């Protein structure tokens, strides 16, 4: 498991009873997490100090209970990059802190390449990986079907002082966009994708990960340069084994390009108990250095 354990502005304080207690900068949030099936360990009283608590509804969705007035959004930093945090109506905050371990890997790969790198970031959300790649000196094409998420990513780029970097922001269905890039003869040295389990494109296109991920990876092969640098797949789909993602990479990248393929889980340490909360899986193909 890869563990994101070098945060200063984020901390997973405690977990238990289907919830997690997190510090985002100076604010503490309490949010549900279905993987936390163990009880709260001890009675430290920290749980009652949360500034905001997201309550899940039995009818679906939920809402925030604010114990004190919080700013609409605030920023946190990681290795010279900054990101806006906002408690949304879907319990999320606009950032997945466990992905920091992948951001560090992305930046290391780009810097070590010592050549211009062009990155394609698909299902790019609020741009954590986009900011990391741009921060390391790459050109980035950021693609997401949500106009709001693309705008958030633009704000993160600006907040990180990277507005002058070559970053393209595209609001579009990922599959349609990659097909157009193939027809245009556009090529990328690296691909990052963070596909949802289920989703809809801007024009109602339906995405089901079990049906679409393999064809999408195959399609992305057609927009890779002759000497690609890396290919990273993240997934939060419940029940998906890391080996599934690794097998997909072996059957696509591994057949055409020599490199190293790996897979596993990503997680965050719980500061009060020493446990590690699993937060998703990854698969990587990387060129041999």
Considering the chains and any ligands shown, give keywords for the structure.
Rossmann fold, eight-stranded mixed beta sheet, Immunoglobulin-like, 7 helices, 2 domains, alpha/beta, 289 residues
CATH architecture of the largest domain: 3-Layer(aba) Sandwich
Distance between the termini: 22 Å
In the CATH hierarchy, the third-tier topology of the largest domain is known as: Rossmann fold
Mean pLDDT over the full residue set: 94
Q: How much beta, percentage-wise?
A: 25-35%
So, the CATH homologous superfamily of the largest domain? Vaccinia Virus protein VP39
Number of strands: 17
- What structural class do helix, strand and pairing data support? alpha/beta
Kindly report the spatial arrangement of strands forming the biggest sheet.
1-16-17-15-12-9-10-11
* Spatial shape: globular
* Largest sheet: number of strands, sense, barrel closure: 8 strands, mixed
List low-pLDDT spans.
Answer: none
* Relative helix content: 25-40%
How many whole angstroms does the radius of gyration measure? 19 Å
Q: Tell me the series of helices and strands, N- to C-terminal.
A: EEEEEEEEHEHEHEHEEEHEHHEE
Count of alpha/pi helices: 7
């Amino acid at each position: 498991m890869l563990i994101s354990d070098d945060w200063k502005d984020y901390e997973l304080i405690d977990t238990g009873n289907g919830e997690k207690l997190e510090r985002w900068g100076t604010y503490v949030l309490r949010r549900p997490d279905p993987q936390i099936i163990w009880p709260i360990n001890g009675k430290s009283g920290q749980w009652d100090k949360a500034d905001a608590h997201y309550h899940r509804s039995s009818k679906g969705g939920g809402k925030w209970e604010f114990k004190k007035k919080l700013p609409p959004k605030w920023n946190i930093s990681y290795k010279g990059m900054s990101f806006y945090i906002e408690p949304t109506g879907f319990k999320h905050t606009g950032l997945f802190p466990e992905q920091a371990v992948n951001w560090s890997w992305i930046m290391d790969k780009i810097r070590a390449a010592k050549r211009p790198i062009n990155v394609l970031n698909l299902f790019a959300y609020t741009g954590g990986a986009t900011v990391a790649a741009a921060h390391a000196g790459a050109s980035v094409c950021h693609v997401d079907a949500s106009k709001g998420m693309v705008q958030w990513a633009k704000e993160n780029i600006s907040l990180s002082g990277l507005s002058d970097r070559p970053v393209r922001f595209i609001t579009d269905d990922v599959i349609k966009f990659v097909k157009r890039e193939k027809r245009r003869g556009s090529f990328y040295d690296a691909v990052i994708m963070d596909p949802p389990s289920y989703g809809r494109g801007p024009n109602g296109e339906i995405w089901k990960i079990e049906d679409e991920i393999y064809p999408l990876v195959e399609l992305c092969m057609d927009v890779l340069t002759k000497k690609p640098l890396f290919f990273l797949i993240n997934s939060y789909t419940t029940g998906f084994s890391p080996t599934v993602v690794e097998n997909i990479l072996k059957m696509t990248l591994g057949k055409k390009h020599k490199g190293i393929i790996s897979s596993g889980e990503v997680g965050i340490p719980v500061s009060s108990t020493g446990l590690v909360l699993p937060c998703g899986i990854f698969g990587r193909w990387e060129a041999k250095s």
